[in-house]
Design goal:
Distance between the termini: 19 Å
Helix content: 40-55%
Number of strands: 6
CATH architecture: 3-Layer(aba) Sandwich
Shape: globular
Radius of gyration: 20 Å
Number of domains: 1
Structural class: alpha/beta
Number of helices: 12
Order of helices and strands: HHHEHEHEHHEHEHHEHH
Length: 270
């Protein structure tokens, strides 16, 4: 799908647009969340707030980065990963190491089961002083040939935390279960597995006097099996989802081949 999206002539021909985790339209909409969250968590514009964001593709937290660049008083932007800890490894070590499919884990917070973060390039561009040539080299030839790059020895790497406020942490399946159980026991609230990753990591980065906001990213009903494992009960199902299993399913299975996908789109749009 990324190859299709990169074909500008094809997209123009068929009037194709997307709103997904690598599209600026989505990032711009999500920037609003951070301003709304800040206003609700503070009483004066002099206060700072930190945000923890469950993240695999670096999209939502990239919107937080944009908000901070716009002047929103964000102390920390904490990236919470699951067992697929590509982003956590970078912010801890300076090494960005893309995982192959064999090393990408299937987890109970599946929206974060990503081994190559599509939006991460946007932040690295800023981190490197908006050096487009160097950014392109790292994400082009370097990743394609070696599968990783290492900024640990670059003085600019320290700015990820010092200038841009980034921190990170990792959560596992057992952490998710424990966090879901703890939040329910303390607050009577059922949270989904991705949000549980965020809460677990947020607790490790709380700073005295600075509110920490965790972005809730999904409905618990989507992960009923794990919720049941944690709490011994199923989450409430919103009325709009009643009977969803009986609705028609429209699926076309095809090879992972950009030319075949383009041919399919052309056929259906003609």
């Amino acid at each position: 799908m990324k190859a299709v999206s990169n074909d500008l002539d094809f997209k123009r021909q068929h009037k194709i647009g997307t709103v997904n985790s690598i599209n600026w339209a989505r990032l711009l909409a999500q920037v609003v969340y951070y301003f709304a969250g800040y206003i609700q968590a503070t009483e004066a514009n002099s206060q700072q707030v930190s945000f923890t964001v469950p993240s695999g593709n670096f999209g939502n937290v990239c919107a937080g980065h944009v908000a901070r660049q716009m002047g929103l008083p964000i102390a920390q932007l904490v990236v919470a990963t699951n067992e697929n800890d590509v982003l956590d490894e970078f912010f801890r070590t300076g090494v960005y190491r893309v995982r192959g499919s064999a090393d990408t884990h299937e987890t109970s917070s599946p929206s974060m089961d990503i081994s190559k973060a599509s939006n991460f390039e946007r932040f690295v561009f800023d981190l490197l002083g908006r050096n487009a040539a160097r950014t392109a080299a790292l994400f082009g030839s370097q990743l394609n040939q070696v599968g990783q790059f290492d900024l640990s020895a670059d003085p600019l790497f320290a700015q990820a935390a010092g200038v841009y406020g980034f921190a990170s942490g990792k959560s596992t399946h057992s952490d998710r279960l424990a966090t879901i159980r703890d939040v329910f026991q303390r607050h009577g609230m059922v949270i989904d597995t991705h949000t549980a990753d965020g809460v677990k990591v947020a607790r490790e980065h709380v700073q005295a006097g600075t509110p920490m906001v965790v972005l809730e990213t999904a409905l618990p009903i989507k992960f009923a099996e794990t919720i049941h494992e944690a709490l011994g009960q199923l989450p409430d199902r919103p009325v709009k989802f009643n009977g969803i299993e009986a609705l028609p399913k429209r699926v076309v299975v095809m090879p992972s081949d950009a030319a075949r996908v383009k041919a399919f789109i052309t056929e259906r749009c003609s």
